[in-house]
Amino acid sequence: MIPVKVLAVRYLANASPALARGLGAPEGYPSLGMLTTDCDDATYIALDAATKAADVEAVYGRSFYAGAANASTPHAGEVIGILAGATPGAVRSGMEAALAALGRLGFEDVGGVPYLAHTVASVGSYLAKEAGIPRGSALAYLIAPPLEGMYALDAALKAADVKLCKLYAPPSETNFGGGLLSGSQSACAAACGAFAGAVAEVAGKPIES
User: Fold this and answer.
1) What is the DSSP letter of 94?
2) Which residues of 132-142 are buried (b: 16+ CB within 10 A; e: fewer)?
3) Which three-class secondary structure state does DSSP give residue 145?
4) Residue 31's beta-bridge partner residues?
5) Residue 162 and residue 91: Cα distance in Å, rounded?
6) Using 50, 70 and 90 to split pLDDT, how confident is the model at 69?
């Protein structure tokens, strides 16, 4: 597994109301926690984990163009994520959960091709909104380079009783592609396995005869 590097973390105990509103924080959530890392998709999963561990909302998450290898500054990386909460303590608890999740997440590598095929057993508020599914649903989070991502996404959709909730058509900001699939936890796990197998197939034989 390719580990995720956390590049910067900062807290605002009582953010400017104008800034909080501009970032999408709900009324009564003036405390913010911000982080950057070198892996956007793992960070989005980690932000979702924060919403399950503490009374926080993931109010902002954006990928940066071209990916971490082309980051504009040493601590920018590939993504910024922002949590909002009613109290500084809630935000710190949420951030601790996100950081712990990042320690368990990362892309796999097969033949020099990185990919993410991760089953979220029970989504929090962030990924539920992103996928348009109820909180607590299972989700397959699938990402790979453009061709591999589309080829493997097709395999994942055919391998199990899952629904395509969101397509990340290539190129994304970081030049990848994939999607979010919903279904039972076992169906999502099967879809992830099919996705990984299809990525490995392309990595092993990129040009089909």
Assistant:
1) H
2) ebeeebbbbbb
3) coil
4) 85
5) 34
6) confident
106: left (phi over 0), alpha (psi -120 to 50) or beta: left
DSSP helix/strand/coil, 112:
coil
Q: CA 95, 99, 104, 105 torsion: positive or negative? A: positive
Residue with tokens 């299972």: 138
Whole-angstrom Cα distance, residue 55 to residue 69? Answer: 34
CB neighbour list of residue 94: distance below 8 Å, 6 or more residues apart: 33, 50, 51, 53, 54, 55, 56, 83, 85
- pTM, entire model: 0.96
Residue 205 tokens read as: 């034989």
Q: How far apart are CA 173 and CA 63, in angstroms?
A: 6
Can you tell me which residue has the tokens 């979010």?
Answer: 180
Tokens in use for 93?
């608890």
Instruction: State the number of CA atoms in the 13 A half-sphere of 187 facing the CB.
Output: 15
Which three-class secondary structure state does DSSP give residue 99?
helix
Q: Which two tokens stand for residue 38?
A: 């070198």
Question: What residues are paired with 173 via a beta bridge?
Answer: none
151-189 pLDDT, tens per residue? 999 999 999 999 999 999 999 999 999 999 999 999 999
- C-alpha 20/C-alpha 122 separation (Å) is 28
List strand residue ranges (DSSP E) for 46-112, in order. 56-63, 79-85, 106-110
Task: Find out whether 60 and 23 touch, Cβ atoms under 8 Å.
Answer: yes
